[in-house]
Amino acid sequence: MEEARSETAPKSFAYRLRRDAGGLFGRLRPLWQRRLFRWVAILLGGALLAIALFWLIFARGLPDATSLLEYEPPLPTIVRDINGQPVHSYARERRVQLQYSDYPPLLIRAYLAAEDKTFFEHHGVDIPGFAGAVFDYASKLGSGQRARGGSTITQQVAKNLLIGDEYSPTRKVKEMILAWRMENVLSKQQILELYLNQIFLGRNAYGVQAASRAYFDKDVADLQLHEMAYLAILPKGPANYRPESEKGHERALDRRNWALGEMEKNGWITAAQRAAAQAQPLGTVQAHGSSFDARAGGYYMEEVRRRLIQLFGEKAEDGPNSVYAGGLWVRSPYDPTLQDHVATSLRNGLLRFDAGRGWSGPVGHVNVDNGWEKELAASYIDVDYAEWRVAVIISRTSTDAQIGFADGSTGTLPAGAAQTPYRKTGGPAFSAMKPGDLIVVARNGSSWALRNIPEVSGGMIAEEVHTGRIRAMQGGFDSRLSSYNRATQALRQPGSTIKPFVYAAALDNGMTPASIIVDGPLCVYQGAGLGQKCFRNFSGGSAGPQTMRWGVEQSRNLMTVRAASQTGMDRVVRTIKNMGIGDYQPYLSFALGAGETTVERMVNAYAALANQGRQFPPKVMDYVQDRRGKVIWPERWKPCDNCNMANWDGKPMPRFGMEGKQVMNPMTAYQVVHITEGVIQRGTATVLADLNRPLFGKTGTTNGPTNVWFVGGSPDIVAGVYIGYDQPRSLGGWAQGGRIAAPIWKAAMTPLLETMPKTPFVAPAGIRMVAIDRRSGKRVYGAWPGTDPKPAVIWEAFKPESEPRRSIRKEEAEEQAKVAAARADRAVANGRRRNDADFLEGQGGIY
């Protein structure tokens, strides 16, 4: 029985399949024999197959239209200055994002008239317009001409934002599909807002507001009817309607008048309005770059850009808050007025130093055979000083040279106006010039005269003491000649500007400002590999035992090295590292500034001295906001609610925690500041004494000398400057910080200091001010320090229980001063050459 079942079961199953299938086919067979049924079935199957193929070819893989609900167009980053005014932007696309309600209704109608009259009637696709576009495409097939678009505004948004600008029928179909989907997701107003903010309109303007500024230097709310109509014709091809060219201007007028006529046909303006608008000229302004002054900030703004990129990235792919797409708002402590003083003073100082050394050569070179206008524009080399301009040598004869400028104009450089010796050959600069050289010239009557960019360079920074905010920064002669920022990137030896921190370590380890240190020969055995190292003063001599204060004021190398040796170089380099200057090995040469650091680090360290040892990181940005105004940097930033209330509301006042980092004992920091005030009054920076205000600082000159420095300031602001060649070499034996760097500092900072009160440096709790003999460091009783810059008795700052115990009388101190002065006068009268001891008596600065 089981075997019988197993044999019949398969047959029975197969029979049932055939029977069922045969039954279904049998029922359909009579219908299939009818012609109408067969045609309907074939058409239905073909339609299903066509839909499947259509989906596979066109619709599969298309982006989701709902993504546009969260779409944010790329926006530039805007930097505001210390007063809150926008001063600079970082942008690759000029764009200002507005809401739909911000656009005047008449401006919207101008775009509808020119681009999509039935926008509010169709559902993403204008069928008659599309049919016309298909016919136009077929008629131009094979001709090489581009057919008219026929795209609605919705389709244009889909093309621009979702699928790209590929010229093909396939793209057009995809465009239509996406437009249909977009109409199901977005309102008409949202689609128009995307369109008006995104569309490219020439002059690197993306969006109507940016174009309004680029073509008419107006906001959209201030546009007149004829200006609106001109902007409305630009989406079809901004290059076709360039007002700068004759043909473009003519085409623009015709097309603009056509758009005005279309507005009248649709009943959006009257005939009188149309006629009045058509009678108007285009009225466009000359093409210009960003509305911000590209020259503003220079090195400062480049430093802001560099730090923003480190924080948020450069391009949109790097994140939502990228520099060139995120629409950031940056509040900076940039002070335009102080920046102008700093830049001008540093440039003038470089020019003074470089004067008489000859022409340093061309600032660049381009290939004039490829079109000098294009090559010069692409070089991005420019100069912003006085009335100087960068020019290219187009051709040269024996008597003059034809030169060209970035704006396309040309001029003549006579040979007689370029006779400065070329420092590489010694011959006239004119003879060394050749076509393609980029030179700097200035107007000289009807022609031009050669000017020289200094080969020497330098950097300068001004920083607020109590916040670390950098108010001004100049990293060279001009950032468009060299983007290398010598204020933040150049590692240079600081020379004697490091000495206050060497003495700070000594003060922290038992010495006082009145401690006696021998200014005498000092040699140190550095091991078998390095042998004996002997140090010397700048003048080569020595002055015997002197006070620490005198050693700082007169910048005595031997005293500094001896103090470092007695303190221990491990303690000295630890102090220098704590101040953020550099991480050095414990070698004595670093006590004289042999290590490398930057202007930014040195200024920040001096600011900490003036702030009683509390240091803030140097800042070129106060805070950063995203495009919606939310503060995204610093990370733990908190708003101070009600801080700017007009009147106190009686509630508890805001309380702020202590900021910054304590990097030095406050009393030690004040002692160093108090000592270095003497550098201004009677030391190596007496060029600043006539400012007649509390100032501290230190000059610096490195071996060679290759660098000259001055760093210092007031209780509220500190600045530092250095001068040197990018490839270090001697500046000349006469070069010293007090002669070159300090005058630059003075010229830059005087205008600011004159607006500030004469605030003295305030001693921290615990400091004891004791009257001492300035020469011997002994305590004086019965005498008060005078106002003379070189008094016999001065106030000196001591930590508790460290002031001198021995004392001398007032009369004794005055008598010693008279004897020393008389000895010096006799030496001069007898014709004897003054030595270091004589310099000591006269307190003259030598280093």
UniProtKB/TrEMBL annotation:
Pfam family membership, one: Transgly
Tell me the keywords, alphabetical order. Antibiotic resistance, Carboxypeptidase, Cell inner membrane, Cell membrane, Cell shape, Cell wall biogenesis/degradation, Glycosyltransferase, Hydrolase, Membrane, Multifunctional enzyme, Peptidoglycan synthesis, Protease, Signal-anchor, Transferase, Transmembrane, Transmembrane helix
**Pathway given in the UniProt record:** Cell wall biogenesis; peptidoglycan biosynthesis
Which SUPFAM superfamilies does the UniProt record give? beta-lactamase/transpeptidase-like, Lysozyme-like
List, for all copies, the residue spans of the domain called Penicillin-binding protein OB-like: 359-456
Q: Does the keyword Cell inner membrane apply?
A: yes
Q: Organism source for this protein?
A: Sphingobium rhizovicinum
Q: Which residues form the Glycosyl transferase family domain?
A: 84-263
Membrane topology category: Single-pass type II membrane protein
Protein name from the UniProt record: Penicillin-binding protein 1A
Q: Give EC number(s), comma-separated.
A: 2.4.99.28, 3.4.16.4
**Which InterPro entries does this UniProt record tie to the protein?**
Beta-lactam/transpept-like, Glyco_trans_51, Glycosyltr_51/Transpeptidase, Lysozyme-like_dom_sf, PBP_transglycosylase, PCB_OB, PCN-bd_Tpept
Gene3D superfamilies reported in the protein's UniProt record: Biosynthetic peptidoglycan transglycosylase-like, DD-peptidase/beta-lactamase superfamily
Query: Does the entry feature the keyword DNA-binding, yes or no?
Result: no
Segments spanning the bilayer are: 36-58
Q: Which family does it belong to?
A: In the C-terminal section; belongs to the transpeptidase family.
Domain Penicillin-binding protein transpeptidase intervals? 460-749
